Amino acid sequence: MGEFGATSTADEVLEGKDLSGRTAFVTGGYSGLGKETARAMAAKGAHVILSGRDAGKLSQAATEIADETGATVDTLVCDLASLGSVRSAGAEANARFEKIDLLINNAGVMACPEAETADGFEMQFGTNHLGHFLLTKQLMPLVEKGEAPRIVNLSSRGHHFAPVDFDDPNFETREYEKWASYGQSKTANILFSVGLEKRFGGKGVHACAVHPGGIQTNLGRHLSEDDIAALRERIERNSGGPVKFKSIPQGAATTCWVATADELEGRGGLYAEDCHVAEVDDASRTDGVRSYAVDPDKAEKLWALSEELVGEEFRA
Questions:
Q1: Considering the domain 10-308, what is its CATH architecture?
Q2: Is the pTM value of this prediction over 0.90?
Q3: Where are the domains of the chain?
Q4: Which residue, 37, 215, 248, 301, is the most exposed by fewest CB within 10 angstroms?
């Protein structure tokens, strides 16, 4: 299990690490887990690039992190719910930055009402997976210039809710259900990590997915009081005890661990939780990764579907 666990914080995980000379690119970097991940890495000397759709919030977060840590903090506007915005951001990043050592695909939406992205995709699948799929493709030239580069895709235990429906990923023929949609998008984040590892692992670029833990952040802004009560009840029923929410510093710990842990050197296509690599488990309701989320055939199917939907090939 290692020295870290569910209650470890981002700062504790990075204790003794020197990230000077390394560049970390964090999507959803101006609030919640993204901001804490960026702050913790900046405090260890990393050059941080915060990405998000709100320029004002990006600027404010960058100033706060730079003032606190003394690090260089850049910003890049990118709306993951618009492929056009993602392409523009990718072009701008390649023009402005020299490399990316750590790509943290952190941003996401959870259990939102039925909605579509600018390109007509279901909002959760379109933002959480397809937006990051295309952004990672755009940024890969910079990642390949990085030193021992790692890609961290934020998933969730919510992937237990649903596999990817390859026949109807955008809920065009089935009735929209926000938790099935969220689960599908989080499963996709893991399968994307498997696909990335297959293609780029041999080139020294390693990708993993993480479950940060149950945390109260603005990710849950779409949840009603009834939703929260039902979710709490589900968690308590599954775990057999009261809900233990993590703090934001604890929630960012697994991301920081996956991005820097020596024991993960040269490894990828994995799913981590509570600062350790999870076991494949199709029965447990409280931990583990479902076999359908790390299935190499499903990863290939998702990759082909994703290329088709974004209209671009993503090759090594």
A1: 3-Layer(aba) Sandwich (3.40)
A2: yes
A3: 10-308
A4: 301
